[in-house]
Amino acid sequence: MERQEALALRREYFMPCVRYFYKDPPLFVRGDMQYLYDERGKKYLDFFAGVSVMNCGHSNPFIIERVAAQLGTLQHLTNVYLTEPVLRLAERLAHVMPGRPVLPGAAPHGSSGLVSSFFCNSGSEANEGALLLARLATGKRKFIALNGGLHGRTYLTQAATGIPMWRADPFLPSDVYFADSAADVIAALEKDRNIAAFICEPIQGNGGIRPVPPDFFKEIARPLNDQGALLIVDEIQSGFARTGKMFAIEHYGVVPDIMTMSKALGNGIPIAAFASSKEIARQFTRPSASTLGGNPVSASAALAVLDYIEQECLCAKAEENGAYLRARLDTLAAKFPVIKEVRGKGLMLGAELAFDGGGTTDAGYVDDSAMLTDRILEELKERGIILGKNGLGRNVLAFQPPLVINRGDIDFLIGNLEDILEGDVLQR
User: Fold this and answer.
1) What one-character DSSP code corresponds to residue 281?
2) Per-residue model confidence (pLDDT) at position 98
3) Measured between alpha carbons, how far apart are the two ends of the chain, in Å?
4) What is the pTM of this model?
5) In this structure, what DSSP letter does residue 48 have?
6) What are the CA-CA distances from residue 115 to residues 137, 237, 281, 388 (Å)?
7) CATH code at 359?
């Protein structure tokens, strides 16, 4: 397929809500670990990983072989039947999720760790299920969420999303209080005794790669307990070695009551889950099922992902390469004031741009920083580098590559980014 044919088909058959980062988007036809190839054979270094999905690399042979083997034996049974892959996956997750062990000296919010899982297909579905579980477990209705958080496209998850552009439904319920700080969370708990849970990402992804403050979870733990409200941690983007630990919440020394997972768990094969302690899980007694959730193929992919993360020490590699990338980005920030801030953990880093070039745009951008972000992404694409963007103003460069990258890849990215910033991109 040629690119023009692809664009014509997109215009004819896709809903207009489907948008692309680029004016002339590449048509990708092949992936190989940290690299992508378009229909013309051009090679790209992928520094976005399909939004933190391909942590183990594109078409990783280790994972593909396991998936293919499962396809050849048993492809699908809904989760009202027993299959070995999903049972083994539930067991395996219980041994890698927070709670075994808690970080030294930390007081866990939960009492017995996360051991009981429900498998589904997407992050939205996992978060919707987590919110439902919180209501069932507490008998309460409302929630608290952070401004800048993104939790999904379903009814409740959109309601709990604090990014205006992702709240598409004009008739969302008013069951969610939004907070900017631990003090705001505590104030909402004191104001309303009908709070079932507080939900947040330890590092906001689409909100601009924003980690919560170091003591945030410890500050809200007792007020949540005192009001009988639960802590839901959304690890959809930050999970599975991305931040240098298996889950980002481990940087904070707190065990959540409920945790959600997706994206990198399947390394491109759709799978998601929400998990809780046994005590909380016992409250979910009404019948529930997911037709495709945790089917044998997706569960086999997830088991292979967990094996590969352990075998290749991806947590350690994300920590080491993330520190190196952070240092290189900090050096660029010192040289180019347009880089307002570099933030994040491991290989989940963002560089926020602050720029007023006096230009205009027909694309509805909030300010020139978003225009500059787009220009940088276009320039990098032409040089064979795929980078992400996010933030409330769409002005944050998002560095979320496959965790199999090396220092040479980082140097290639930084060298090209520096060259672009030194060029005329700031004058356009």
Assistant:
1) H
2) 93
3) 34
4) 0.93
5) S
6) 16, 21, 9, 34
7) 3.90.1150.10
User: Quick check: 140 and 196 in contact, CB under 8 A?
Assistant: yes
Could you give the CA distance from residue 239 to residue 270 in angstroms, rounded to a whole number?
Answer: 15
**E strands in 101-257:** 116-120, 142-146, 176-179, 195-200, 203-204, 210-211, 230-234
Name, in order, each residue with C-beta under 8 angstroms of 339's C-beta and a sequence gap of 6 or more.
329, 332, 333, 351, 352, 353
Residue 326 lies in a domain: yes
Please give the single-letter amino acid code of residue 342. V
Comparing CA positions, the residue from 34, 92, 350 lying closest to residue 246 is: 92
Torsion angle in degrees (nearest 10) through CA of 81, 86, 91, 97: -130
**Cα(369)–Cα(367) distance, rounded to whole angstroms?**
5
Length of the chain in terms of residues written? 428
Which range (17-31, 72-86, 120-134, 361-375) has the least confidence?
A: 361-375
Q: Two tokens at 413?
A: 């990215």
Predicted confidence band of residue 2 (pLDDT cuts 50, 70, 90):
confident
Same domain for 333 and 194, yes or no, is no
Q: Is residue 165 part of a domain?
A: yes
Distance CA 234, CA 249 (A): 9
User: pLDDT by residue (tens digit) across 34-68?
Assistant: 999 999 999 999 999 999 999 999 999 999 999 99
